[in-house]
Amino acid sequence: MEATSQAVSIPVPEKDLLTHVLRQGAQKMLAQAIESEVAEWIDAHSQVRDEQGRRQVVRNGYLPERKIVTGLGEIEVRQPRVHDRRPEGEREPFSSKILPPYLRKTKSVEELIPWLYLKGISTGDFHEALQAILGPDCPGLTATTITRLKQTWEGEFQEWSQRSLAGNEYVYVWADGIYCNIRLGEGDRQCLLVLIGVTKDGKKELLAVMDGYRESEQSWRELLNDLVRRGLTVAPKLAVGDGSLGLWAALAKVWPTTTEQRCWVHKTANVLDKLPKNKQAAAKAKLHQIWMAETRKDATAAFDAFLEDYRAKYPKAAECLEKDRKELLAFYDFPAEHWAHLRTTNPIESTFATVRLRHRRTKGNGSRTACLTMVFKLVQSAAKRWR
């Protein structure tokens, strides 16, 4: 594979005794689960008998052994064969929910493929990379298969990006611009604009992902206007994001009633960057006291104390904090049980932590559609773990 400046530590399962033991355990547990699933199906049909009293739904040996690629490597499984003796038209074909007929890889592999792409690894190098992660036996994951998967996912992404949002309401939204190792255009400044929302019942959803410029009002206005065009007519109550985003100027025009909340993680980093190294630890603790205060009154007192401590010697740090006072404390106007979620852009940060650009990008440009699609798939997988 083409070398990059990114050092990614990849374990090799075949040389890892623990992984070998875990794989054997996973194979045994999967076999037991499938046996149990088939037994339950047979028992549920135990009363289905012919005129001679013989059962019509019975086991009949095993289907051919199959190999499944998992996050622990390849494992072999055998599924009991179910024979339904009833006449054509009365039969109920058994289909395992654990092991669907055409499953060849687990969901963890579907997460690995977008991750590898966004790290800058080319489609032709996927097989080698997956072998390093999953072990030397990765059948069915050739460059052709990866290309076919990407085409399927691109279709899913196109359908998702044009879906109707009529009737949808999102109380809060988180926004950020994500740089990954794939260049989306001629320059290096273009990135992925991401918007995640939460509904009234607390369900987080990916609202939008598109390419654009992080600091550009026009890019964010295009994103917001597209949401409105597709039916999202009720503005969120609060939007959370970094102060440098072009989102805020766009928000004032598209959703003027939405309250702005600056991300405390981004703000803390920006303030500390304006202080000497030996002053940063103490300053970070004092900033933490502001946004973790139990009341707005306490937060305001801690805010004023920080300014008093640092304004004289470090005016740039104090100014950086003070200019966004209103937007940094906005979350206090919302229910206290929501504060932990509203102080930062963590829903986006945690999802994209592994693909954010840390160093230089790879030299080649990526397909715009492919890159957006891979982000879509990555967030789809991450969404299953959202709470």
List the topology elements.
Blueprint: H1 17-44, E1 57-62, E2 66-70, E3 73-77, E4 80-84, H2 107-118, H3 126-134, H4 143-161, E5 172-178, E6 190-198, E7 204-213, H5 217-229, E8 238-241, H6 247-254, E9 259-262, H7 264-272, H8 277-291, H9 296-310, H10 315-322, H11 325-328, H12 339-342, H13 346-352, H14 368-383
Parallel strand pairs: 5-8, 8-9
Antiparallel strand pairs: 1-4, 2-3, 5-6, 6-7
Task: Outline the structure in words.
A five-stranded mixed sheet has the order 7-6-5-8-9, sandwiched between helices. A two-stranded antiparallel sheet has the order 1-4. It contains 14 helices and nine strands. Helix 4 crosses helix 14. Among the domains are: 104 residues, no CATH class; 80 residues, no CATH class. The N terminus is likely disordered. By secondary structure, it is α/β, with parallel strands linked by helices. The chain is 43% helix and 14% strand. Strand 8, helix 6 and strand 9 form a beta-alpha-beta unit.
